[in-house]
Amino acid sequence: MWSSVSVTFLSLALVASCQASFLMTVMPYKVEMGITENVTILCSYWGQSSFSSLEKISMIRILHQRDAEPFTVVAEVRDNENTAHAVSLDSSVAVKGHIGTVAGSRIELTWPLATSSVFGRYRCDVIGFDSSQDVITEKSPIINITETAVTATDVLELVIKERQDLQNYCDAKVLASENKFAALLNNLKAEQAAETNIIEAGLKAEIAELRADVARLMDTGVLQYWPEGTFALLSPQTGCPNNVGAIWAVGFRKFHTESTDRNYDQVTTNSHLKTPILERVGTNNFMYQHFCVSSTLSPGAAWPRGSYCINRKGDHCPSGFDTGSISWNEERTGSAATTTGVLPDGVFAAASSKLFYCCRNDSSTNDAIYLPKARPFYLYRFQGACQQVAGMKVTPEFMQFDTDTTNTDAYDNDYHPDGHINDVRIELCYYEERI
Fold it and tell me: Using CA atoms, how far apart are residues 391 and 389, in angstroms rounded to an integer?
């Protein structure tokens, strides 16, 4: 029979095939509910940090799975907070963590006395940037904490699961260690010859599937999570973009534009903006801006470096952005501007509007950034050109609001989308998946 200590040993042994990686460990090795004290689960880096692709770590998370349920985040530490906190754990569980160098970053959980909540499968996700400032996610191998002994067959299944998780960021090196796994399988063949052939065949199929998963992850970026923080984007005609980690709220501002003289409202021909955009009711002219608002903190990594703007939400910008605003006057005669739903930060009156933005210019627009590409989306152009996004086709567009003839349109500072005031023109960048 194999005790639960074997699971931890296998996780540690796998590091040899990759030289170094983030691993989960558990102490003490044997855990009994209601008896074992100070059960500690630790995620830290093992081996030489020079082998890691991570240049900077933004977040470390521990995820837990029970039975057939999906993995859920139970604790995390972020670099902008640097204090670990529980997400869904008993209040008795102590959480500690720190983000610094790769070798010095860690997060750990400690149960003063083992309860049923300690058992299950655990994984550690480490999110950060590589040397090219692209966002990457490294996942540790899975460990399993159980009270019951496991058979040789169970160990083989655990080996397969260990390889599946390690495959996400160590594919080539894991494949290079085939001989080590073959030796393990051969040692167990004597006891379970009939089962081994089935396991080996299944292992090859799983490896092929994992290679395809890795290719999809590399192509789509950070698991379809939008970056961290609260923010808003203009809504395209297809609706709000895909966001695994948060729920979009929607709303719009109906601007009352010049209606007593000739009106110069304009948008790009064949615009992809959500409709209605331009509207005339009687003698009054209106323009709409529809928004997708992420009001709850997205679990994604930090926003990538580049040159672009988004709408501000929550009175401050995500890390790396500077805030600015555009103010413009609307039709004063019979002012009929309205707002509906959830909007980004702004000041909205009957005859004037002020919208706040978050802008950055800390990398070339030609250096493609990774954002979720499952659905189209808009960014604002900043400093002269549209930011390139990996796997996406970008189309320049614009909106122009014919403000009141006696307007006092104004920029608050330099951190606003490209365009001009008097009348207000805003330059947009529309992104759709490249076919």
Answer: 6
Residues 6 or more apart from 261 whose CB is under 8 A from it?
A: 405
Sole residue written with tokens 């006891």: 191
Residue given tokens 């939008």 in the structure block: 226
Q: Helices 193-220 and 178-189: crossing angle, nearest 10°? A: 150
Residue 19 contacts by C-beta under 8 Å, 6 or more apart in sequence? 47, 48, 51, 173
Task: Give this prediction's pTM.
Answer: 0.53
- Return per-residue pLDDT of the chain as tens, 435 residues: 333 333 333 333 333 334 568 888 888 878 888 888 999 999 998 877 667 788 889 899 999 998 878 888 989 998 877 788 888 788 889 999 989 888 889 999 999 999 888 999 999 999 988 888 888 888 888 888 887 544 455 445 555 555 554 444 444 444 444 554 555 566 656 555 555 555 556 666 656 655 555 445 544 444 467 888 899 999 999 999 875 555 789 999 999 999 877 789 999 999 999 999 999 998 899 999 999 998 877 667 889 999 999 999 999 999 999 999 999 999 888 888 999 999 999 999 988 999 999 999 999 999 999 998 888 999 999 999 999 999 999 999 999 999 877 778 999 999 999 999 989 999 999 999 987
Is 100 exposed, middle or buried, given 0-12, 13-18 or 19+ CB atoms closer than 10 A? exposed
Q: Please, what is the Cα angle at 131 between 129 and 164, to 5 degrees?
A: 60
Amino acid at 371: L
